[in-house]
Amino acid sequence: MDAIILQILNGLDKGSAYALIALGLTLIFGTLGVVNFAHGALFMIGAFCAVTLQKLLSLSYVVIDETKTDFMGNPLKVQAPYVEKWFGPEIGEAIINWSVPLAILFSIPVMLAIGVAVERGLIKYFYRRPHADQILVTYGLAIVLQEIIKYFYGANPIPTPAPPAFAGSVDLGVALGFDPNAIIYPSWRLIYFAFAALIIGGVFSFLQFTTFGMVVRAGMADRETVGLLGINIDRRFTIMFGIAAAVAGLAGVMYAPINSPNYHMGMDFLVLSFVVVVVGGMGSLPGAVLAGFLLGILESFASTTWATTTIPGINQVIIYLVAIIVLLTRPRGLMGRKGVMED
Amino acid sequence: MLGLNGRDTTLLVIVAALALLAPFILNPFPTDSGLAQFNAGYPDLMQRFAIFGIFVIGFNILFGLTGYLSFGHAAFLGVGSYAAVWIFKLFTYNVVPAILFSVVIGAIFALAIGFISLRRSGIYFSILTLAFAQMSFALAYSVLSNPKFNLTNGETGLQVYADDPQMFHGDHLPNLPHLFGLSMRANYEMSVGAWDFNFNAGYYVCAALLLIMFYLSMRIFRSPFGMMLRAIKSNQTRMTYTGLNARPYALAAFVISGMYAGLAGGLMAAVDPLAGAERMQWTASGEVVLMAILGGTGTLIGPILGAGFIKYFENIFSKINDNVLHGWFAFLPDGLEDFIVAILHPFIGKGWHLTLGILFMLVVIFLPGGLVEGGQRIGRLFRRKSGKDDAEKATQSTPAE
């Protein structure tokens, strides 16, 4: 029992990332009808927002510490971050340690701006072109974004630690009534899951309970009629693109401590997220979230020693296998609406 | 000639001339001159031109004619490479059986994957092929290289070792892939004045196959079968209503393009007896899509242009470095020179992917028909100019209104 719960928990963090990216992809597909291959790159840029903020906050100047000497007998030079100078050593250190959560605030405007810029500058011209063209141009965009990041940050992964308060693990087994040490789980992954749930809940309630969201949903159902009612649906859809970019970006920011960001992390997630979207059903938001978690958990179960000894390599292919089976038996996906992209 | 009409014969002759004279054409600059870095006439690169040309021609038969966008074509290339290296390991270094076997394996794989994937169309087809290719990649990378059953040799890549059986390997034969004794690395260097031209056996094998494959694709394009494939692209529903089942045609196209890819993979192993899993990764599949689009899908010559264009610029841009740039802009004042070099720096050397991405985006945005459409537009521009002259003459004689 505890082993099963442990595997479910292990699947949750990857599942959360899949779900968040797939949610953004589905938002874009559902509103604009565009298949966005650059979404993985947006996730990656989010992660690099965290990297950037951490680097900015730890910008340092050199002070000479008169009290200590180095091995040559000269006064020791110490790197002192500016924030510690401005806010005092304790608050300054805390700010640096908490740079990843702080990057959430930093990344939202950045990602919204990038999203709106991409939509207005590029995607707008591709509404009437075939899906293949949209895939190709966003694929090109993904390459360009990726290479720009590579140019500025290099090709190596950049470790971006979580705040020390969440660096350790928690013993969830005790809380759930199992033996101690049965289920030990890194705290940051729990945070990631909670954060993902929060974002997903936020997006859904935004669509469900605000006037703006209502109009967007109406536009997703019938764009033309909404336009005829005198509503500028294009502008709202642009904003939705920005929001989808921000969701991907936030997923990336919070993922940075789990996996040190490198420039091609987006591509790795993109392929899987597409599979997730298709399994969940093109254009279905709950489907994307459900399939994201489902596939994440399935992947984690397939990685157990038992599974890999029974069927070697199952952990590598499980997601694709599921996708193939779903596509062949139920092409509209788990929760896809009848008739949407069903051929 | 050969069942082609006049225009196609001309095209075939042009391609044949380009392919056979490539060592001259691609080496226009003297070896010691500053421009020698733009030369592409060395064996390695010419082989890549021909191999990727074959690969993209095959991809174009599927994507250009039927409109099915496969995002997993590199899988066939990969299995083709593995198949060829296994022939090298078990039987002989002769490339003929290796290439034949890689084509057969490519076809079998394409038949299996195509049979399942073609049940869906549009984006679902893309995702299915992508899923299959990624599965093949993951399996080749990890599971199929365990000590008990080592089919792919995992991360190291499959290669020929000294203790491999090589049953039919004669002692007098070269210890490298060869064509009935002629080593694929055999190279004849001809020096004419300041120029050095390389004639490489491996390249000519690839080029000959490229020509045969180009001819085949031409025949397919012009055949009733090709017409059916076009019908799938333009309106599959209507095709079904006229009583034709589209799936066998699409499957045939898929298998043919898989065979082309298998052949390309076999050739890749033939010029360099090594097969790695990274050839199957989805970025490799993306590259062939890039080449096809850049050249112009659905055209005959487009795929070759696209493959050549990308491979050439990949090579050239990655070779240029800051020193070369400083050399070019040396005539400018120092400050301006440094400024220009600093601006160009991200686009060259290791950054050539960025240049490629931008180029690709520009082509998709402004030239959906690829380089071929670009050429046609330029051609039309000239024709219209001459046409305008005629029109002007006509209006001069009879003033309007």
What does this 3D model show about the protein?
The complex is a heterodimer of chains A (343) and B (401). By secondary structure, chain A is mainly α. Chain A has one domain (2-59, 99-329): ABC transporter involved in vitamin B12 uptake, BtuC. Chain A is 69% helix and 7% strand. Chain A has helices spanning 2-32, 39-57, 82-87, 89-97, 99-121, 131-153, 172-176, 187-209, 211-221, 223-228, 233-255, 265-280, 285-302, 305-310, 314-329, and strands spanning 60-69, 75-81, 169-171, 184-186. In chain A, a hairpin with a 5-residue loop joins strand 1 (60-69) and strand 2. The longest helix of chain A has 31 residues, at 2-32. Chain A is globular. The two termini of chain A are 41 Å apart. The mean pLDDT of chain A is 84. Chain B is mainly alpha-helical. Chain B has a single domain (6-319), classed as Orthogonal Bundle (ABC transporter involved in vitamin B12 uptake, BtuC). Chain B starts with 5 loop residues before the first helix and ends with a helix. The model of chain B is unreliable at 394-401 (pLDDT under 50). The A-B interface holds A 35, 122, 125, 129, 131-133, 135-137, 139-141, 143-144, 146-148, 150-151, 267, 271, 274-275, 278, 282, 312-313, 316-317, 320-321, 323-324, 327-328, 331, 341, 343 and B 67, 69, 116, 119-124, 126-128, 130-132, 134-135, 138-139, 141-144, 146, 282-283, 286, 289, 293, 346, 351, 353-354, 356-358, 360-361, 364-365, 368.
Structure, briefly:
The complex is a heterodimer of chains A (343) and B (401). Chain A has 343 residues and is mainly alpha-helical.
